[in-house]
Structure formats: structure tokens, C-alpha cells
Amino acid sequence: xxxxxxxxxxxxxxxxxxxxxxxxxxxxxxxxxxxxxxxxxxxxxxxxxxxxxxxxxxxxxxxxxxxxxxxxxxxxxxxxxxxxxxxxxxxxxxxxxxxxxxxxxxxxxxxxxxxxxxxxxxxxxxxxxxxxxxxxxxxxxxxxxxxxxxxxxxxxxxxxxxxxxxxxxxxx
Length: 172
What we know:
Blueprint lengths: L1 H6 L3 H8 L3 H9 L1 H12 L1 H127 L1
Helix pairs in contact: 3-4
């Protein structure tokens, strides 16, 4: 049995040959058609033919996969180049973001400075507006006082004239 396992390939052929019925041996020897049929059965040729038909589908699928892999391999260089370009763009974007953040900090400081200046200017404007109102009131008061002063000066002049007239009358 060991010799058969090592030297007869496959084991199924040996097993099939052992179980050929007595009447079939005569048919094998005399009739070519029967001989071919029995030999096909004993040798398992149908199994090989089925395997061949099935392997054609498998071979087609493997060829299709092989072509897909070839295309992927061909695209690998292109994909790697695209990846390098994307990495460069990413690095450039990060650099620009860094610059923009720095610029944002500078502008924020400038905005803060200008906001402070604006608040100071607004306070000064309010102070000036208050002072202008006070000046307007003082000017109005001054005008009123000047008018009163003119009236009193006029009255003094009138009184001086009256006094002179009285002194002249008295002297006469």
C-alpha cells in the first residue's frame, strides 16, 4: 500500500482500478468505446475536465486581479507624487497659518492700542464738549455782565453829568 501511495498518482486511480467489476474488464479489452468510458472513470478524467473548466474561471479571475494589481502598481508612483505634493501643500498651509496667527497677534495688539486711544479720544471729546458748554455759559454770563457793565457805565456817565449840572447850579 505504501508503494502504491508513493508510485501511483493519484490514489483515487488505484482505488478505482481495484473496484472495476469483473465483467467490465472484458468490455475494456474488446470494445473501444467501453474501454474509453471505463478508463475515463478509472483515471478520473471527468474530474480533471471539471477541474480544468473550473480553473478557467479561476484563471480569468486571477488574471483580472493581476491586471488590477498592475494598474495599482503603475499608479503607485503617481499616488506617491500626489502624496508628496499634498504634503508640500499641507506644510505650506501650516506655514501660512503660522504667519497669519502671528499677524493676528500683531493686529490684535494694534487694535487694543487703537481701542485704548479711541477711548482716550472719546473721553477727551466728552471733556471738550463739557468745557465748550461751560465756555458757552461763561461767554453768555460774560456778555450779560458786559451789558450790565455798559449800562452801569452809562448810568455813571449820566450821574456824572447830573452831578456836574448840580454843581453848576450850586455854584450859581
